[in-house]
Specification:
Blueprint: E1 10-13, H1 17-28, E2 33-36, E3 48-49, E4 57-58, H2 69-77, E5 82-84, E6 90-94, E7 99-102, H3 118-136, H4 147-151, H5 155-162, H6 166-180, H7 189-198, H8 202-208, E8 212-214, H9 220-228, E9 234-235, E10 242-245, E11 250-254, E12 257-261, E13 263-266, H10 270-273, E14 277-279, H11 284-292, E15 294-295, E16 298-305, E17 315-321, E18 326-330, E19 339-346, H12 347-354, H13 358-373, E20 382-387, E21 400-401, H14 407-410, E22 421-423, H15 436-459
Parallel strand pairs: 1-2, 1-13, 2-9, 6-17, 10-14, 13-22
Antiparallel strand pairs: 3-4, 5-8, 6-7, 10-11, 11-12, 15-21, 16-19, 16-20, 17-18, 18-19
Helix pairs in contact: 1-9, 1-15, 2-15, 3-7, 5-6
Length: 460
């Protein structure tokens, strides 16, 4: 491919937040880009309706953490405003046969089987996970001491070996599922320790990563970046099915044609990249990453009420439920005409609950909320399910995870470029995988990898 025949300097596959962040960086450098996505919208796993009746809704990623500096900066640069989520108040813990109330951001008190306190036992279990995460680290976990041994185990095995009380195991295991969308028996111990290290610690994952929202919804970041790009550079509803790559450049093929560039960024979750043919084929370790990482099973449910009636009872709207198994937060924004609770349900809880059908799902969930918050919860003004397993070109959520045996043998291929192919997406983030912060960091990192070398190529 000669320089004069190229359609762009860089092709980006995936118009989610990561791909859009990369596109912005490269466009501002004066480079020509082409951006492809199978969806009919930009934003990827951020998906909002800013005009939704009575207030914006985020069907996908929404939360901003206190240390999410890069994504905060990008959102503000795009003219967005942050507001606090999670109002103060007490939290409800629904253990199925018992309701417990805890202080905001804390664990409940209850005497458990061995005579110890549930709060202390949970704190001990999460501290043990944090310690393991520190030993594994966020950069090269496959090089950690005992990496192969840790990767041979699941989180379920670790819980059985390290947490003696059944109730504590259930709560910690349910927390793993809420975070990743998969059950502890499905996820590598090494991978989960790495995930926690990337996101600082368990307290950050449970609290400080989920404290702020964007007014109008998180997808606006991608939409406003798109407004700054040439309209001809964005190809939506045009999935890439083949990537040819070599010493001279890259070529992507879609049903509408072929396009060439000097470099390419795959801003996709690995499971989506696995659907694309590469010629020549990618190295074995990267093929394993693409084919063996799995999205969780995940549904995001948003329920709206005339007012935040739980606040009148001293409750924050935050619920940790073992039955039917979900986590809820109050995400009412200033200016909303109604109150909104968001609920996350994943893994085997999702499997069991979702197969009941919409009417029975709604009945069971409203009954559970009424048990936790009061009978007013039975009468919402809106009930909106977003089943991420049914979202085309994503087919799951919130993040791809690794089963045992993958990270210790192939993890080094997660972020490393292959020739002229660079990788982004929150799964390839240097930190905060699974969050918008990770998406922004990975997109900017991929752009930084290629800016200098590509500018030198063009000057030659």
């Amino acid at each position: 491919m000669s320089k004069v025949s190229l359609d762009a300097d860089v092709i980006i596959v995936g118009a989610g937040l990561s791909g859009m962040a990369a596109a912005k960086e490269l466009h501002e450098e004066g480079l020509e880009i082409l951006l492809f996505d199978g969806k009919d919208r930009v934003g990827g796993r951020t998906w909002s309706d800013s005009q939704f009746e009575n207030g914006a809704l985020d069907f996908g990623g929404m939360f901003i953490g206190t240390t999410h500096i890069r994504s905060q900066r990008l959102g503000k640069e795009m003219g967005l405003e942050m507001v606090k989520a999670r109002p103060s108040g007490k939290m409800v813990w629904d253990l199925g046969d018992e309701l417990l109330i805890a202080e905001d951001g804390s664990y409940p008190e209850k005497t458990i089987g061995d005579g110890s306190d549930l709060k202390a036992a949970l704190a001990k279990a999460f501290a043990a996970i944090d310690e393991l995460a520190r030993k594994v680290g966020k950069d090269n976990p496959w090089e950690a001491p005992e990496a192969a041994e840790l990767d041979s185990k699941t989180m379920a095995t670790w819980l059985e070996e390290n947490v003696s009380d059944l109730l504590v195991r259930k709560i910690v295991g349910s927390d793993v599922t809420i975070i990743t969308g998969v059950d502890p028996a499905e996820i590598s111990l090494l991978f989960f320790a790495f995930y926690v290290a990337q996101c600082e610690d368990m307290y950050a994952l449970q609290v400080t990563a989920n404290v702020m929202l964007w007014i109008g919804g998180a997808q606006q970041i991608s939409l406003r970046i798109a407004d700054k790009l040439p309209s001809s550079s964005i190809h939506l509803s045009e999935p890439v099915f083949r990537v040819n790559h070599g010493e001279d450049g890259v070529e992507v093929l879609t049903e509408r044609g072929s396009y060439t560039a000097k470099r390419i960024i795959m801003a996709l979750p690995p499971s989506a990249a696995a659907q694309i043919m590469f010629c020549p084929e990618l190295p074995p370790t990267r093929r394993q990453i693409n084919r063996r990482t799995n999205f969780g099973r995940y549904l995001k449910l948003q329920i709206r009420y005339e007012k935040q009636f739980w606040l009148d009872k001293g409750l924050s709207g935050e619920i940790f439920s073992l039955a039917p198994g979900f986590f809820s937060l109050d995400v009412t924004r200033p200016g909303d005409k109604v109150a909104t609770l968001v609920l996350f349900i994943g893994g085997s809880n999702y499997d069991r609950w979702f197969e009941q059908g919409e009417e029975r799902r709604r009945e069971e969930m409203l009954t559970a909320l009424a048990r936790c918050l009061g009978e007013e919860a039975r009468n919402p003004t809106a009930y909106i399910e977003t089943n991420w397993n049914g979202v085309e070109f994503t087919m799951g959520g919130p993040v791809c995870s690794m089963p045992p045996g993958l990270m210790s043998t192939c993890g080094a291929a997660l972020r490393e470029p292959i020739g002229r192919i660079h990788f982004a997406g929150t799964e390839a983030a240097p930190a905060w995988t699974g969050y918008m912060e990770g998406a922004v960091q990975s997109g900017e990192a991929a752009a930084a990898q290629i800016k200098g070398v590509l500018i030198n190529d063009l000057a030659a």
